[in-house]
Structures are given as structure tokens and as C-alpha cells.
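Homework-ish question, so no full write-ups if that breaks the rules, but can someone show me the predicted structure for this set?
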Amino acid sequence: MNSLLGQMNNNPQFGGYYFFASNDKAVSVWNIYFHRGGVFRSDTDILKILAGVFRHLSNDYNAGIVEHVLQSLETGNGIDEACLDDSSSGQLRRLHPLISENRQNSVKDLYHSDGPFYFKYLREFDDNFVRVLTDYREASAVKTSSVLDIGTGLGILPYMYLQNGHSVKTLDIADVPKEFGLVRAILGLQDHTEFTIVKYEAMVRFDVRFDIITCSQICFNNYADDDCWRSDEWRFFLKDLHDNLLTEDGFVWLGFNHFNQEVDGRILELRYQDIHDLFEPYMDPDATYKAARLHKSDIADLLQLH
Ligand SMILES: C[S@@+](CC[C@H](N)C(=O)[O-])C[C@H]1O[C@@H](n2cnc3c(N)ncnc32)[C@H](O)[C@@H]1O
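A: Not a homework solution, just the prediction itself:
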């Protein structure tokens, strides 16, 4: 066990390799020792390390199970059935990595060199997974949530929510390469809607409301074109989400694509000053790229809906 733990602790950097290696080692320690053999009070320190690694790697589902087992050791209370493989065996649940090597390889196998621009995401799937992990952390869920991912692409971000126990729907334009649908199937993302967002047109309606609406590397605002959305178009979109798609305590997380060109002698990442002015109060100062989180109540304030 020490050898496996050492391999985790020797990985201080948070690159792709370290992410997958550390996650796999932590899963191995659990499955080899605790899933089969149960836990003792003397395991507390190791369980704390595992819980910390899983939290750090956004494997919240695994972290939740380890933390529950730790708590039951500390309090002497029984272990919840949700943490057991089945109640008759009494064996602790077997854990899984956030994404298996098999799944990663199945996605990479779909790559062929004459595919369109976005095919680079297939070949570099593992690197993209680690990139999107940052979005997942920044758009963090505080409770088990219903999630809609807009402009989903390969579906990496909604997959992370799904693996961590949230319910997930995805949305993208119909005209994506057929391989994107195959990737979603590999990732188990079954609830997909084809829809094109158009400025000043209402979004498609769903039979549920969402606690979290994520939009990562946004393109539907035509960010690279001259008809890039201005603040009025954004206001229309936000009002529609507010009125028809968000739950009362829900939020929308907007991860902007960068324009990054000089306008009137200034670099405006969001292209126009009015867009910066609109979103600045809701920008996450710690985000890697420009990203805003607006709760339903923020949208109501912004649009003076009270
Ligand atoms: C840069 S990709 C980002 C994919 C994914 N969210 C990620 O972060 O890896 C932009 C996505 O937005 C989708 N998209 C572009 N225009 C759209 C529109 N008008 N309505 C809905 N989706 C759109 C594209 O098909 C593509 O999947």
C-alpha cells in the first residue's frame, strides 16, 4: 500500500499524466485494500489521504464515499447502504476512476487525420479532459443537481457531472461530425438535444428546470464575427434562461471563448466594452479564462425584473 500511496504523493504537478496516474493509484488502494478487506480505525490517516486526492482530482463521487466511511469510523455509526456494493455482502463499494483508460482509448480510436478542425479534440482527448476539469471545478455544484450543458462538443464537462452523480442533458447544433455522437455514446450521455441558439430567439424548452446551466468555450454568440452578440442579445438570452430554464437557486456558468484582438488600442477579451461591463460583476476573479457565474437572482437584479 505504501508503494501505491508514494506514487500518488510523488506527483505534485497537476498535468494530464499526474491526474490520471494519481486517480488510478487512489482507486487501486481503495479497491485492493478497503473494498475487499473493510476498514479499521487505524486506516483513518490513509483514508484521509484518499479522500483528499479524490477531492483534488474532482472525483467527488469517490471522495463522498471515502468521507462517509471516515465519518462512520469516527462516530461509530453504521455505513450507509449507498456506500456498499450490496447490503447482503456488506462489502464496501468498488470505486472507479473518473474516466477509464478504455473509454479514453475508445474515443481516441475515432480520430482520423482528414477529419474537421474539432477532431484535434479526439486525438488529444486526455489533455482536453484535464482542460475541462478546470471548468468543472469553477462551475462547481453545491448539491446533487440537474445540469444542462450548452454547446457540448465531445461532452467532457457533462460527463464529469454525470460521473459525480448529477443528472445531465446536453445540447448542440445538429451539424456536428457524427463522431461527436459516438463519443457521447461512449461517455454514456444519452439525453441529447439538437438545437441551434439564435440571437433574439427563445431557447428550446425542456420538461425539467436546471440547477446548473454550463456553457464552455462559448461559440453561439458568434464571438469571432462582426455580428458577435452585444449586451442586448445577452440580456434576451439570460431572461429566457431566467424565466424558463433555471430553478429558483440555479445558476448559469459562462466560460467565454477569447476574442483577444486589439480594439481601439485595448485588448478586449470579450470583444466589446458593453459585454465586459455587463458581466464584470459576475466574473470569477480566480478563473483561468474569463468566466461568469450568474445565479437566477443575479439575472433578476441585472435585468431589474423585481
Ligand atoms: C469550442 S466548442 C466547445 C465544446 C465544449 N463545450 C468544450 O468546452 O470542449 C463550441 C461548441 O458550441 C457549439 N455551437 C456553436 N454554435 C452554436 C449554436 N448557435 N447553438 C448551439 N451550439 C453551438 C459547437 O457545435 C461546439 O460543439
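Now go work out the reasoning yourself. Hint: The mean pLDDT is 90.
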